[in-house]
Amino acid sequence: MTAAPRKRVLILPGDGIGPEILAQTRRVVDWFVARRALPADLYEEPFGIPAYRAHGSFLRDETWDEIEAADAILFGAIGSPEYDTIPGAAEGAGLMRMRTELGLFINLRPVRAAAPLHAVSPLKAEVLRQTDLVIVRELTGGIYTGKPRGIETVDGVRRGVNTMIYSEPEIERITRAAFDLARTRRKRVCSVDKSNVLEVSRLWREVVQRLRDTAYSDVELTHLFVDNAAMQLVRAPAQFDVLLTENLFGDILSDIGAAAAGSIGMLPSASMTGMDADGPARHRALYEPIHGSAPDIAGKGIANPCGAILSFAMCLRHSFLRPDDAALLEAATIATIENGARTADIARPGQPTLSTAEMGSAILRELDAMADGWPAAARA
Ligand code: IPM
Ligand code: MG
Q1: Closest Cα partner for 311 from 296, 291, 294?
Q2: 243 and 274 within one domain
């Protein structure tokens, strides 16, 4: 058997709590390289405010070259009040550039309500039970990138303009990703739109339904308007398996979904150019926690590293095609929490809390304890 080809993994810690949580993620990556022979070569580049401070540029060409060369990017966070003090700085620009120029149109945002965290969710335990869904968000189109856009003056009146636009091929490729994913799960897709008002949503619904009827008749498909979907996500999140939606709706629904997980600090995501169920992954991908840079707690060493570490589990599954290793890391993370390890965001009142680094160490100890009995990594 030939060895699996090595993959370039680029770490971009970014702003705010990004460097703290990715330092712990890096320890976990090193563990998989050392203990599970993960064929990963690690690179790291400053990004955002730290890059600006060190090199006078938020995203310099050297970093962009590394981004283009990487098979997988582990991204921390972007966002800081400092952007407002730097003329011409656009906060989300670097992340948007990676999404659009790398073509990362599939965004997976799984939401699982782990039983030990039911008590810290604002939702009731009986509502959370069995919640295990994935939001499949289209990530390169829609109103985020549509043209025309801008702020203009017409007849002396200023106005802002953005355009929500989707072509049939754009809708089709993200729909295929959602149906393919559903086939590996409970085979149920709910497509979310606003087709009672928006033409772009009417086309969306038509294309999704047509693809289901012609190529995925084994998958159950339902449709919801986005306002109703938002309510259903807090009323009865366990009803969903795969939620398929466009860029802006997915942005909003995924933060709503975070309430079910207990803390937004727990939630991972993957952004990809494609998915391969079998055979070596050819696709580029970026993995990031969905919580953002949290400037209010940056530098304090109290951020929850679980969202970033679980994002690396998604990397093991989708970029390295190592489902056993992904499951090991997910199981070790949940077991760590089950055993009572809590960062401040997932602690109950009065419960002792761990620092970011202590949480990283606790997960590594759990990995050590679980690894022996775990099946050897399947080689892609
Ligand atoms: C997200 C974030 C981004 C988005 C921002 C930082 C541009 O909210 O990934 O959900 O709106 O997509
Ligand atoms: Mg968001």
Answers
A1: 291
A2: no
Number of domains forming the structure of the chain: 2
Does residue 117 sit within a domain?
Answer: no
Looking at the CA of 137, name the nearest ligand.
1
Cα separation, 67 vs 63, in Å, equals 6
- Is 251 assigned a catalytic role? yes
> Pick from 233, 261, 289: which residue ends a domain?
261
| Atom 10, ligand 1: residue with shortest CA distance | 251
Among the listed residues 30, 43, 132, 255, the single catalytic one is 255
**Which residue's CA is the closest to the ligand 1 atom numbered 6?**
92
* Span 245-304, pLDDT tens digits: 999 999 999 999 988 888 889 999 999 998 765 445 568 999 999 989 999 999 999 999
Average pLDDT value for the chain: 94
| pLDDT, tens digit (0-9, with 9 covering 90-100), for 119-130 | 889 999 999 999
- Residue 244: inside a domain: yes
| DSSP secondary structure, 213-250, as one string | HHH-TTSEEEEEEHHHHHHHHHH-GGG-SEEEE-HHHH
